[in-house]
Amino acid sequence: MAKYKLEYIWLDGYKPVPNIRGKTLIKDFESFPTLEQLPNWGFDGSSTQQAEGHNSDCVLKPVARYLDSTVKNGVIVLCEVLHHDLTPHSTNARATILDDPETWFGFEQEYFLYKDGQPLGFPAEGFPKEGQGRYYCGVGYSLMGSIAREIVNKHLDLCLDAGINHEGINSEVAKGQWEFQIFGKGSRKAADEMWVARYLLIRLCEKYGVDVNWHCKPLGATDWNGSGMHSNFSTKYLREVGGKEYFESLMAAFDKYKAEHIAVYGPDNHMRLTGLHETQAIDKFNYGVANRGASIRLPNSMPKNGYKGYLEDRRPNSQGDPYQIASRILETIGTVSHPK
Ligand code: ADP
Ligand code: MN
Ligand code: MN
Ligand code: MN
User: Fold this and answer.
1) Other C-beta atoms lying within 10 Å of the C-beta of residue 307
2) Which ligand ends up closest to the CA of 232?
3) Which of 36, 68, 154, 225 gets the highest tally of CB atoms within 10 A of its CB?
């Protein structure tokens, strides 16, 4: 028997964007526990905007678990929040989203590292000498500083240790801005891993005195880039059959439901989707091959392969909830019929 440290994490009830909360439970297990071995637990919902009325107990139901390589015998236990009658809480988007293990999602999470209220590496007054652009995939101390790369590389290791399908890293266009990518088969799996990856990053940054700023336009209406969470997706049909006609009907559906998509693509997106900085305007929908100013970008390979492959929805932002984003994409896909 060993004492396992189970870090139960969940999304709270804050609007428009939930925060990740966590608390630790110690339990004896012979070996790394299976999901089935992990008990439900509880917390005080009155402190997380999840309590209703005078009854403040909420239930934590484990839905996935990951190795926590920063702690001896550490386990991260991702939980859904339930009422005490075990029905899903209204803040528990995961419980009700559409899922299809045959639909694959790749999320590109952009974010800023922040210190003392501004992007990591910004001077105390004014702006960095080097304007934006040089920081994208940049190298060198004066551009990148001395801690950011250590953070992002450690984060990568934590994700890989946890079994998260982290696929890559790049520094972004603005100083202090970075991106990582997570790929998963099925909306729940990909979105679970994105939330846990976000958690690991925020927690890792604590010891550097750094915060993660997930806002989609933290520097406001300046020339500094915003942060997105481009959402790449492919259904089995798109990967294996595709075709121009089907593709065009799919894009017509995305156009028809553009407002419904924007509604779950993250708050303050009007600040980011301006038509500038490689974005399309928030009220327009278009698509284009290799077009980074489009709402949806088709990789070059797609038309070449008879419209088979994956698509990149560039509109979701860095604070968006991957559960709701993926579910809305599946819902729109579901309105378009195709031959079996
Ligand atoms: P870029 O920055 O050029 O937009 P990235 O390499 O950052 O591209 O991200 C591409 C994303 O597309 C990755 O998350 C990857 O997992 C995802 N992706 C690749 N192939 C597929 C596919 N068939 N279905 C869904 N997502 C995919
Ligand atoms: Mn990218
Ligand atoms: Mn990017
Ligand atoms: Mn992209």
Assistant:
1) 19
2) 1
3) 225
